[in-house]
Design a protein that fits this description.
By secondary structure, the chain is α+β, with helices and mostly antiparallel strands. It folds into three domains: 144 residues, Beta Polymerase, domain 2 (2-Layer Sandwich); 79 residues, no CATH class; 65 residues, no CATH class. It has a five-stranded mixed sheet, with helices on both faces. A hairpin with a 2-residue loop joins β3 and β4. The chain is globular and about 50 Å long. 39% of the residues are buried.
Length: 304
């Protein structure tokens, strides 16, 4: 029987655009011998549009202390993972998040309530640079935990029988509600609808991993608890903690992410259809500028 690990191993091995691979090798080079793997994910992977876009990478390192020449960056990455940085290469631009192998394995799994990593890697990704076969296999095993973590958290919120694709859509909608997001309301469903066959293929192995018997990827998923009190409280806690963590990461990014306020405005304008202008003082004091901007965005519904 095909396992989640089998599907992930095949999926991340699919070749990416050569420019992405070259970009990933450049990013890996920034971390020297501590770099273990670079993963490409997100909207640019789905659409294959690169020019004028912001690519998304995750850099997996062996150890934070080895990865940085400034101790405070290692401490920040360990206490509030991940660190996020902007980078440009050969006419393309990207942001990359940094996680250790141990943190990636933990945060991609159900060991954590925070949805940030397992929600992203329950979606397609590509391994665009790897140190060696051991690093590749460790990435496979970590990513293979993401989809079961997502679906395992979502099933208790289902009510009666549900179509497999609807389960994925509801699962991603739950994770989108657990972070401060600038995307429009239908964004979570569009992730699944972009490649429904991929999610049908993953359904059977993911449910088998969770110990739920099904007859195939097209079988109706076993019903959950219909949003029991415990399940609702679990997601309410995820939403509170997730939105607070987003604000904390924003504060940290003001020290690590040059141009972070401009990127924040660009992303919100792109996804929410707003026309936010960044003022000079907000660039000079990015943390204060972002915190002043946030209440306005919440009131206007640009972020949720």
């Amino acid at each position: 029987m095909t396992t989640v690990q089998d599907l992930v191993r095949a999926e991340i091995a699919v070749s990416a655009d050569p420019r992405v691979a070259a970009f990933a090798a450049h990013v890996a080079g920034l971390f020297g011998d501590s770099a273990r793997a670079v993963l490409f994910y997100g909207s640019c992977l789905r659409t294959t549009e690169l020019d004028g876009q912001m690519l998304d990478f995750y850099v997996i390192v062996s150890d934070y202390r080895e990865a940085y020449d400034r101790r405070w960056l290692a401490v920040a990455n360990r206490w509030i993972p991940p660190n996020v940085f902007p980078v440009q290469h050969e006419g393309l631009q990207a942001k990359y998040a940094v996680l250790s192998e141990a943190d990636f394995d933990r945060l991609a799994s159900s060991q954590t309530r925070n949805v940030s990593v397992w929600a992203r890697f329950a979606q397609p990704s590509r391994l665009v640079w790897s140190r060696d076969d051991a690093a590749t296999e460790r990435v496979v095993m970590a990513i293979a935990k993401a989809a079961p973590a997502l679906i395992g958290a979502a099933i208790p919120m289902t009510d009666g029988s549900i179509d497999p694709l609807d389960l994925w859509r509801e699962a991603f909608a739950l994770t989108y509600s657990a972070e401060l997001r600038a995307e429009r309301g239908g964004r979570a469903a569009s992730v699944v609808d972009f490649d429904p066959e991929r999610y049908r293929q993953f359904t059977g192995p993911v449910l088998a991993d969770l110990g739920i018997d099904v007859e195939g990827a097209n079988a109706i998923v076993a019903p959950g608890q219909g949003g029991s009190r415990a399940a609702r409280w679990g997601w309410r806690r995820r939403r509170i903690e997730g939105k607070l963590l987003t604000i904390i990461r924003l504060a940290k990014a003001s020290a690590t992410y040059a141009g972070g306020v401009d990127y924040l405005a660009w992303k919100i304008n792109r996804h929410a259809g707003t026309e936010i202008d960044v003022r000079p003082w907000q660039r000079r004091w990015p943390l204060l500028g972002a915190l002043v901007l946030l209440p306005r965005l919440l009131m206007r519904g640009a972020v949720r």
